[in-house]
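Weekly sync, protein design subgroup
Attendees: M.S., D.O., the rotation student, P.L. (late)

Item 1: inverse folding check
M.S. brought a backbone from last month's batch and wanted to see whether the design step gives back something sensible before we order anything. D.O. pointed out we never logged the input encoding, so this time it goes straight into the notes. Structure tokens as presented (77 positions):
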């Protein structure tokens, strides 16, 4: 199977756009740092194609939130 790198890059651009839209729709734009950090990278090797999506480390917490009834954020932090 031959993978077209330009198509994989288009998919990456589409996903970055959709992830940004979703963060905005959920009201997660305080400074815009997380939204602006979302990037995609198409990596093609002889035996596979990989699309890597990266963003600021704290994005995982924005996505998953905190547990119901969990501790509040310490004010000192």
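Designed sequence read out in the meeting:
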């Amino acid at each position: 199977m031959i993978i077209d790198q330009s198509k994989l890059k288009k998919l990456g651009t589409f996903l970055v756009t959709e992830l940004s839209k979703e963060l905005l729709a959920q009201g997660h734009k305080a400074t815009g740092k997380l939204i602006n950090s979302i990037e995609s990278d198409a990596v093609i090797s002889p035996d596979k194609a990989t699309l890597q999506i990266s963003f600021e480390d704290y994005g995982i917490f924005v996505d998953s939130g905190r547990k119901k009834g969990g501790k509040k954020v310490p004010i000192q932090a």
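Discussion: Helices lie at 5-25, 33-37, 59-64. The radius of gyration is 16 Å.
Action: P.L. to compare against the previous round before Friday.
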